[in-house]
Write a structure and sequence with these properties.
Elements: E1 11-13, H1 20-32, E2 43-51, E3 56-60, H2 73-84, E4 90-99, H3 122-135, E5 139-143, E6 148-151
Parallel strand pairs: 4-5
Antiparallel strand pairs: 1-6, 2-3, 2-4, 5-6
Helix pairs in contact: 2-3
Bound molecules: tetrahydrodeoxyuridine.
Tetrahydrodeoxyuridine binds near residues 43, 63, 72 and 118.
Length: about 160
């Protein structure tokens, strides 16, 4: 029997090491967390997508009392990007999240961000992959307070993905 392994290339850096354009995208993702509607999880996620024309489209998670009806920040942003710029490639997506659940209530807002990057769920990877397959590579920037990870593509986060039928 043959064995093989799949490797994922990840770059790790601080926000200061990003280009100015990528710092702007991360800042937009962090700002988008303010537009999260997360009364149930209290976990506020923001996503910002850099479009091929350099505009930035943002989204935040939107929850619902019927829990599965809610949607993640990444799909909110990607669906909004596709709906507002149909057919346009998405070059990069940045993601950031914070919670003040179980934390002192008097900290500066920035302190509530996750120390380590959070990573998109499987459903969001699948949704983003479709746009990547159709319109071209989407770099993924996952921003935490302490570390930022950069993945070269959505596909690199979703090996053996389902792409067609
Ligand atoms: N969530 C996102 O928006 N993106 C992720 O990558 C992970 C989870 C949301 C879904 C839900 O509103 C809350 O975070 C807690 O899971």
């Amino acid at each position: 029997m043959k064995e093989f392994s799949i490797t994922t290339l990840v770059k790790e850096c601080t926000v200061d090491e990003l280009t100015a354009a990528d710092r702007e995208l991360v800042a937009a993702a962090r700002e988008a967390t303010r537009r999260s509607y997360a009364p149930y999880s209290k976990f506020h996620v923001g996503a910002a997508i850099r479009m091929a024309d350099d505009t930035i489209v943002t989204g935040a998670n939107q929850e619902n009392a019927a829990y599965p009806s809610g949607i993640c920040a990444e799909r909110t942003a990607a669906f909004y990007a596709s709906a507002s710029h149909p057919g346009m490639a998405m070059k990069k997506i940045a993601i950031a999240a914070w919670t003040n659940h179980d934390k002192p209530s008097d900290l500066p807002w920035e302190e509530y961000f996750q120390a380590m990057p959070i990573s998109p769920c499987g459903a969001c990877r699948q949704a983003l992959l479709e746009y990547e397959t159709k319109y071209g590579n989407i770099e993924v920037i996952l921003n935490g307070k302490d570390k930022t990870y950069i993945f070269p593509s959505v596909g690199s986060l979703l090996p053996f993905s389902f792409t067609e039928f």
